[in-house]
Amino acid sequence: MADKFYPDYDFQAYMVKACVTEHKQQREDTSLQQFFETIEAMMAQEHTRITDAHIMYDQIKDVVYIWFAAVFKEVFDDMRGKLPWSKNALLRALREEEYYIREDQKINMGTDGAKRTVITLSLKNAPEVLRNVAGVNK
């Protein structure tokens, strides 16, 4: 019947597109997504406690360095200790992501240039919210 009334309509292509969209949406609705959205919201505040001493973008390598221990503490404090996820659960989830690179790198961060142990994440296939946190979409 659809062929009769809508001969140019490609139902199979529609289903593939709908499934891909749904899959992407489900992947983004994760603990990591919620964590990064919380960070993004905190960074948007006028007097944010998350600064370039916590998160740094390397434009040449297209990676973001996150001083995860300090960022997690700031989020934990901001949410008054009522987090729906643990630090270890977030780290495990991060390690499974395609944009994860490593977590043992030491780099100089912030205006004082102190060495921090950071998590390194590629922004090539990162979710939009992580790109926002990195400051790429300004």
Summarize the structure.
By secondary structure, the chain is α+β, with helices and mostly antiparallel strands. The chain has six helices and four strands, in the order αααββααββα. β3 and β4 (114-122) form a beta hairpin.
Notes on the structure:
The protein is an alpha+beta fold. A hairpin with a 4-residue loop joins strand 1 and strand 2. It has a four-stranded antiparallel β-sheet. The chain contains six helices and four strands; from the N terminus they run H-H-H-E-E-H-H-E-E-H.
Note the topology.
Layout: H1 2-5, H2 11-28, H3 31-44, E1 55-58, E2 63-66, H4 68-78, H5 87-95, E3 100-109, E4 114-122, H6 128-134
Antiparallel strand pairs: 1-2, 2-4, 3-4
Structural class: alpha+beta
Secondary-structure element order, as H and E? HHHEEHHEEH
Tally of DSSP β-strands: 4
How large is the count of helical segments? 6
Could you tell me the strand content as a percent range? 15-25%
Radius of gyration: 19 Å
- What's the shape? elongated
Arithmetic mean pLDDT: 86
Distance between the termini: 49 Å
Helix content: 40-55%
